[in-house]
Design brief:
By secondary structure, this protein is α/β, with parallel strands linked by helices. It is built from nine helices and 13 strands. Strands 1, 2, 3, 4, 5, 6 and 12 form a seven-stranded mixed beta sheet that branches. A six-stranded mixed beta sheet has the order 8-7-9-10-11-13, with helices on both faces. It is elongated, with a radius of gyration of 23 Å.
Length: 309
């Protein structure tokens, strides 16, 4: 394992006949390196996830926390993880951009004896120590159920989906479509969980003359982008049913302003991830999966429920 050793040195008295040594004992405590491989930190939620882990590990002087940002590039994230394996980090935390391209390299880390904590997104293999996430399928089913009860038959729904090929996007799509009223028409565009990309995707759809009664955004960041595009085209977001996931501060503001209908809390899992890391380094057993509770937040509840950040 890669360790950083802290030493207190000897004090040399230059010009004196005797060598004076420090009376305090030499420190030889090994610092454990915990590395977080993040998909894309331009995404505010993913940036906060890394910062939450850092914050909750900050009290441990025996842990050095580092992170790598792949900038939304699967190949870059793969190379970064390979380097972390070569560096022999003590724990690898990863939120893989997509499972197909990253499952193998994460399995390599696990097989190399490095404990692997997956935050929010799974891989195709069972080669990890702990997976931490809210239940994406349950959230998607609840979102579909809400729209089933709210929209008239034959309504058109615009779905802004996340990054293709990762477990979160798959769950939030499949469970949603499986639960949705089959009479509804769904138009899907990718926003990759990024506000600016959702804005562009929504703008292009509206430019084509397409209209819809509701928006189902895989993240509240994308819901923000969609609202900006609606306003550009002279459409009041309050006239649509808008469902988002994460419940960040802008989502609370939109709920209170009547410009969003529902959000679902989706904690970053940083606190839980840090706790798992500590148990691993302290030699304690850890569960294979940690499921974080979520909550549906309506405009009536927005003043009572604190945003995740």
């Amino acid at each position: 394992m890669m360790h950083r050793i802290i030493h207190s040195g000897f004090v040399h008295a230059i010009g004196l006949l005797a060598l004076l040594t420090v009376t305090s004992p030499v420190l030889a405590e090994a610092v454990k390196v915990v590395a977080f491989s993040q998909d894309d930190m331009t995404n505010d939620w993913r940036h906060q996830q890394v910062m939450d882990v850092r914050k909750h590990l900050a009290h441990r002087e025996d842990i050095q926390f580092i992170h790598r940002d792949a900038g939304g590039n699967t190949a870059v994230q793969m190379q970064q993880i390979k380097q972390l394996i070569a560096d022999k980090v003590d724990v690898l935390i990863a939120s893989p951009r997509e499972s197909r391209g990253l499952s193998e390299v994460i399995r390599e880390a696990h097989q190399a004896g490095i404990p692997v904590v997956l935050q929010g997104r799974k891989i195709d293999y069972d080669a990890y120590t702990t997976f931490i996430s809210p239940d994406n399928q349950a959230i998607a089913k609840e979102a579909a159920g809400y729209l089933n009860q709210t929209l008239p038959e034959g309504a058109k729904i615009f779905m802004l989906s996340g990054v293709a090929g990762n477990s979160v996007t798959r769950a939030r799509t499949r469970a949603f479509l499986d639960t949705l009223n089959p009479d509804f028409k769904v138009i899907e565009r990718r926003g990759d969980f990024i506000r600016s990309r959702a804005l562009v995707a929504t703008d292009q759809l509206l430019e084509s003359g397409e209209r819809f009664a509701a928006i189902y955004a895989h993240s509240d960041s994308m819901a923000i982008g969609a609202r900006l595009a609606l306003q550009k085209h002279g459409i009041d977001p309050a006239d649509l049913v808008i469902v988002g996931i994460d419940y960040i501060q802008p989502a609370r503001e939109a709920l209170l302003a009547g410009q969003q209908s529902v959000s679902y809390t989706y904690p970053t899992g940083g606190k839980q991830g840090a706790a798992i890391v500590e148990k691993i380094l302290d030699g304690q057993p850890v569960p294979k999966q940690v499921t974080i509770e979520h909550q549906m937040v309506t405009p009536e509840l927005a003043n009572q429920v604190e945003p995740i950040f």
